[in-house]
Amino acid sequence: MSQEQTISDDYVIWSNEHSAWWGPKHCGYYTHLSSAGRYTRDEALKVCVHARGGREFNKNPSEVPILLADAEIFWTERGLEERYRREQQERAAEYEREASEYELDYQP
Question: Which parts of 1-108 fold into alpha helices (H)?
Fold first, then answer.
């Protein structure tokens, strides 16, 4: 990477508890990365280490610090929308399967 191509040192915080990004100045939660608060690495780690008692063994942490540059690549709004649409389609297909099984089992 050249000196001109520097990556921001900003971090964002993903809340597994709220399924959203922490807002600016520790206020609120936002579903779009572009609205998320920006934190230094130390700030983000301090929040995440102490959130809900910190990370517990073999459990997902409630809050996760993510380098903004990585989040912009990995966690695009388009990707989330596609994932949400796919999950909705899977739920609908499951519902249809269950409904058809119920109809086969149901004998009036």
Answer: 41-50, 68-74, 77-105
